[in-house]
Amino acid sequence: MPLPPSRHLLRAKDLADASYADAVTVADMAAAARLSAAHFSREFRRAFGQTPHRYLLTRRLERAAALLRMTDWSVARVCAEVGLSSVGSFTTSFRRMYGASPTAYRAANPPAAHYARVPACFRRAYGTPQHRTFREDDAPPPG
Predict the structure, then answer these.
(1) Distance (Å, rounded) from C-alpha 93 to C-alpha 108?
(2) 67 plus 122 within the same structural domain
(3) What is the pLDDT of residue 136?
(4) SS3 label, residue 109
(5) Radius of gyration of the chain (CA)
(6) 101 touches 91 (CB < 8 A)
(7) Same domain, yes or no, for 43 and 25?
(8) What is the pLDDT of residue 99?
(9) For a Cys-Cys bond, which of 12, 44, 47, 123 suits 29, CB 3.0-4.6 Å?
(10) Both 124 and 75 in a single domain?
(11) Average pLDDT over residues 18-23
């Protein structure tokens, strides 16, 4: 029994979700769905309400927003990490989606250090003991 076409489209969507940082193209997504590029684009848009290219760009920009919030990487590095090659195009697309440039978006969020929390259990386990429990600690230094 052959699979319904929507299952093949989900393969392409999964490819975009998993490999957004790679040089994935609409042709790659169409090949994953086992459809011609033109037919794939029509079916993808019908099934998901947006073109495959738009879907892929949206995934990349969502990840870029997370990286801008959670890291102190440069905008150029974030651009490259999400699979885009032009910082200018990235900035324009980012501004359209989020209403601010990547730099302004980062400035409007807490600094990355705010998110770098060390769990209390690690602080207790690996931190400096607050109470001395060894007799050697009270002994005068040898000499």
Answers:
(1) 18
(2) yes
(3) 60
(4) coil
(5) 24
(6) yes
(7) yes
(8) 94
(9) 12
(10) yes
(11) 83
